[in-house]
Design goal:
Length: 362
C-alpha cells in the first residue's frame, strides 16, 4: 500500500509545484525567440505586451503564483534581450523602465483576474457535478413516492375521508413540485455540461401550444387559460420537445406568480416577419431590475425568496431552449401588480412544399 501511495503523492506534488514553472519557462523562451524573429523584420518597441500572452495562459491553467513567476522572468527576458544595454538586466532608457513597471502591474492584475476566473470555473464545474449526481440519486425514490401518492389519492377509502384526501393531495402536489425542480436541475446540468443538440422538425404552433397547456393541467387548474391563435399560422422549425419544455416553463411561472382564478392569456401571431408567442398573466409583475435580469441562472427577485418556492432556473432553461431553436425570449411588465408578459419570437422559415401548396389551394 505504501509503495503505491507515495508515487501518486510525488506525481501530484510535481504536477502542482514543478510542472507550472517548467511550462512557464518554456513558454517565455518560445515567446522570446518569436519576438527576436519578429524584430528582424518589424521595428516594435513595446515587447512587454507580447509577454502577457504566456502570463495569461499560465494564470488560466495554474493560478496566480505561477503566473507571477512567468511575469517576473518575462520582465527579465525583455530587459536582458531587448532593452539597451543589451544582455544586461539594467534598462537605462526611462521609457523602457516605465514599460517594465507597467508590464509588471498589468501582469499582476491580469494574473489575479485570470486566477479568479479559473477558480470560478472550477467551482461551477463542481456545482454542476454535485447537482447532476444528487438529482439522479433523488429521481428514483421520488418517482416511487409520486406513484404511491397518486395511487393512494385515487383510493375510494381515501377519497371518502376529507382529511386523508387533503393529506394525500398535499403529498402528491409536493412530490410533483420536487420532481419539477429536479427536472430543472437535470436540464440545467445538461445545458451547462453537454450543451443542447436540438432536432430540426416542422412544428405547428397551435399543436405545440395545446400540448404544452394539456401537460400542465394540474399547474394551470386554478387559472383561466385563454388561447388566441391568429389565422393561417405558419409552421416553424425547431425541437418540439425542447420548445414544449420552454413554453411549459413560461406557463408554470405564470401560474406560480399570479393569484388563483386569474387569467393567463396565450396568444400566437405573426408580426414583422416573426412568429410570436405571448404568455400574459395578471400576477405580481416585475420590477425594472427583475425585467433586466429575467432569464439569468439562479436569479430570483428578493421579494419572492421567502414566500415562493423555486430554484430560479425555469426562465433560464426556457431561454436556453428557445435560443437553441433560433428564437429569442424576454419578459415585459408594467411594474409591480401589473402582471407579466413573456414574448417568444421565432423566425418564419420558407414553408415546406405541402404547406405552400395548401395555402395556394386556399
Amino acid at each position: 500500500m505504501l509503495g503505491t501511495w507515495f508515487p501518486k503523492r510525488r506525481g501530484h506534488w510535481a504536477e502542482r509545484y514543478v510542472v507550472p514553472y517548467i511550462v512557464a519557462i518554456v513558454l517565455v523562451t518560445i515567446t522570446t525567440v518569436a519576438i527576436a524573429l519578429v524584430l528582424r523584420r518589424i521595428d516594435f518597441q513595446n515587447v512587454g505586451i507580447i509577454y502577457l500572452l504566456p502570463t495569461f495562459v499560465v494564470a488560466i491553467r495554474w493560478g496566480f503564483l505561477p503566473a507571477m513567476f512567468t511575469a517576473l522572468i518575462s520582465v527579465g527576458c525583455s530587459a536582458f534581450f531587448f532593452y539597451p544595454p543589451i544582455y544586461s538586466f539594467q534598462a537605462h532608457n526611462w521609457d523602457n523602465q516605465v514599460d517594465l513597471v507597467l508590464f509588471t502591474i498589468v501582469a499582476a492584475v491580469t494574473s489575479h483576474l485570470a486566477g479568479r476566473l479559473r477558480r470560478k470555473d472550477e467551482i461551477d464545474r463542481l456545482r454542476e457535478a454535485l447537482i447532476g449526481s444528487v438529482s439522479h440519486e433523488l429521481r428514483t425514490p421520488l418517482s416511487s413516492i409520486l406513484g404511491a401518492a397518486s395511487v393512494i389519492a385515487e383510493s375510494p377509502n381515501v377519497k371518502s375521508d376529507p382529511r386523508l384526501a387533503t393529506l394525500s393531495n398535499v403529498v402528491r402536489e409536493e412530490a410533483e413540485r420536487l420532481n419539477h425542480d429536479i427536472q430543472n436541475l437535470l436540464d440545467a446540468t445538461r445545458i451547462s455540461s453537454e450543451g443542447i443538440r436540438p432536432k430540426h422538425e416542422w412544428i405547428d404552433p397551435a399543436d405545440i401550444v395545446n400540448i404544452a397547456i394539456e401537460r400542465r393541467q394540474r399547474n394551470l387548474a386554478a387559472h383561466k387559460v385563454v388561447v388566441k391563435l391568429a389565422d393561417a399560422l405558419p409552421l416553424f422549425e425547431g425541437d418540439a420537445v425542447l420548445f414544449d419544455q420552454a413554453l411549459g416553463q413560461v406557463l408554470s411561472n405564470a401560474a406560480k406568480y399570479s393569484p388563483a382564478n386569474s387569467k393567463i392569456a396565450v396568444e400566437v401571431r405573426t408580426h414583422c416577419g416573426m412568429l410570436e408567442f405571448h404568455v400574459a398573466d395578471q400576477g405580481t409583475g416585475l420590477t425594472t431590475e427583475e425585467q433586466e435580469r429575467w432569464g439569468e441562472r439562479f436569479y430570483r427577485g428578493a421579494r419572492h425568496l421567502q414566500n415562493t418556492t423555486g430554484s430560479g432556473l425555469g426562465a433560464w432553461i426556457a431561454k436556453a431552449f428557445v435560443e437553441a431553436s433560433g428564437g429569442t425570449i424576454h419578459a415585459e411588465s408594467g411594474g409591480l401588480g401589473h402582471g407579466c408578459t413573456v414574448i417568444i419570437k421565432l423566425p418564419i422559415p420558407d414553408q415546406p412544399p405541402q404547406e405552400a401548396d395548401a395555402h395556394a389551394d386556399d
